[in-house]
Every structure is written in C-alpha cells, then in structure tokens.
From TrEMBL:
<keyword id="KW-0997">Cell inner membrane</keyword>
<feature type="domain" description="TonB C-terminal">
    <location>
        <begin position="149"/>
        <end position="238"/>
    </location>
</feature>
<dbReference type="GO" id="GO:0015031">
    <property type="term" value="P:protein transport"/>
</dbReference>
<keyword id="KW-0813">Transport</keyword>
<dbReference type="GO" id="GO:0031992">
    <property type="term" value="F:energy transducer activity"/>
</dbReference>
<comment type="similarity">
    <text>Belongs to the TonB family.</text>
</comment>
<keyword id="KW-1003">Cell membrane</keyword>
<keyword id="KW-0653">Protein transport</keyword>
<keyword id="KW-0812">Transmembrane</keyword>
<keyword id="KW-0472">Membrane</keyword>
<dbReference type="Pfam" id="PF03544">
    <property type="entry name" value="TonB_C"/>
</dbReference>
<dbReference type="InterPro" id="IPR006260">
    <property type="entry name" value="TonB/TolA_C"/>
</dbReference>
<dbReference type="InterPro" id="IPR037682">
    <property type="entry name" value="TonB_C"/>
</dbReference>
<protein>
    <submittedName>
        <fullName>TonB family protein</fullName>
    </submittedName>
</protein>
<dbReference type="InterPro" id="IPR051045">
    <property type="entry name" value="TonB-dependent_transducer"/>
</dbReference>
<dbReference type="GO" id="GO:0098797">
    <property type="term" value="C:plasma membrane protein complex"/>
</dbReference>
<dbReference type="GO" id="GO:0055085">
    <property type="term" value="P:transmembrane transport"/>
</dbReference>
Length: 238
C-alpha cells in the first residue's frame, strides 16, 4: 500500500511565491542601503568660518602718476601775400625749353669720344673666355683641357706645399679655409681673402697661396683682365 501525502502539508507548494517575496525584500534593502544619506550637524569645517590674520593682508599701494601735458598744436603762420600795384613793372621769369628742336645745333661726329672697348676690368673664372694658364698647361689643346689642368695643378701645388701648423695640432684645430685670390693682368697673385676657423690655419693657407708661380693672365677677347678664383683648403687631423 503506497503512502499518500496531504497536498495542504506539502512544503514546496508555495516555494515560488516565497522566492519572489524574498527577492523583493533583498532588492528593497539593497536600494535603501545605496540611497541612504547622512548629514553632519557640525559645520566647523566650513571655510567661511576661518579667520585670517590681518598682518598677512597687504594694502595695495596707490601710485599717483602725473601725466605730461599734451603737446600744444603747432600753428603755422600763413604766408604773407603781397599785392603788387598795377603801375609797378613786374619782371617775369621765362623758362626756356631744354628739349632739342629744329634750331638746335648738332655736335660733329668727330668730337664725340668713343670708348675703345667695353670689356670689364674683372671677370669671374667660370665666365672668362680664356682662363689663366698655370705653368705646364700651355700645351693643352682646348680651353676645357686648360681649365682642367689649372685645377689639377692648383691641387698639386697645395699638396706639395701643405704643412699643418704645430699650434693647430696642439690645440686640435681642424676645418676648411675658404681662399679667394685674383690673378692680376700681369699674371701675379693679389687681393687674397681668407676665411677659416682659426687664424693659424688662415696663415698657413696664405703661405701656400703666396708660393704660387706667376701665371699667364686670363684674357677676354684677347685683352688681359683680372680673374678672381676661389678654392677651399681643408685641414684635418689624422
């Protein structure tokens, strides 16, 4: 014989209802705990109640500046107009025209001086027709070859006469000295200009340039002219 349970005494009969009621109570308590607010009755922390020592308050210094008086306007005296009498004879200045007309005399052609040539006195190395010729480059056939020979002979001359200054070696000085000189109309070297990192290096570069031989001057349309030339000399310690 199977035992029978009374449905009225079954504990699980209202379990779902109890679950929802319990969840509602838990959510209500959590809400109240999060939204609960408390206030302090003591307001001693209010900054408006702080007292500041009067000695720390500095009075702003009032400066009275006297502005200069505005400049007085300059009143120009009107020019004095003199009215001449009708009886007085007034001499009028006649302005003659300077433009030529049919009555202007023409100077004879023989009296007009004509310049021999319009060749400038100084022409840069890259623009001159016939560049200066270094000794030993006379046999080069073309102008391009003569210029290339000039460059190579200049470098050869610098390497041959180069001597590093002792004071520059002791001080560890090195750098590039820009040298600009002019080949004069007679082939001599003049107007040497130097710019470098130290005076000792500039003096050595000037000594090297002073040992250049006399060159054949540059020519423009067959006329000797001055030719500036620039070359850098590099000083580098090993």
């Amino acid at each position: 014989m199977e035992p029978k349970k009374n449905p009225q005494l079954d504990v699980r009969r209202n379990s779902l209802l109890f679950f929802f009621v319990g969840m509602t109570l838990v959510l209500l308590m959590a809400y109240l705990a999060l939204e609960w607010k408390t206030y302090h009755n003591n307001d001693s922390w209010d900054v408006s109640g702080l007292k500041v020592d009067e000695e720390l308050i500095e009075d702003a210094t009032i400066l009275k500046l006297k502005l200069p008086d505005p400049p007085k306007p300059k009143i120009k005296t009107p020019p004095k107009i003199e009215i001449a009498d009708d009886e007085d004879d007034i001499e009028e200045t006649v302005i003659e025209a300077s433009e030529p007309d049919q009555d202007t005399e023409i100077a004879p052609v023989e009296s007009i001086e004509v310049a021999d040539n319009d060749i400038p006195e100084e022409i840069p190395f890259v623009l001159i027709e016939n560049a200066p010729i270094f000794p030993g480059c006379e046999n080069e056939k073309t102008e391009k070859d003569k210029r290339a020979c000039f460059q190579s002979q200049m470098l050869k001359h610098i390497r041959k006469n180069f001597r590093y200054p002792e004071i520059a070696q002791e001080m560890g000085l090195q750098g590039r000295v820009s040298v600009i000189f002019t080949v004069q109309k007679d082939g001599s070297i003049g107007n040497v200009r130097l710019k470098g990192p130290h005076e000792s290096l500039e003096k050595e570069a000037a000594r090297i340039i002073s040992k250049l031989p006399r060159l054949e001057p540059g020519k423009q349309r067959g006329t000797p002219v001055k030719v500036p030339y620039s070359i850098p000399i590099t000083f580098k310690l090993n």
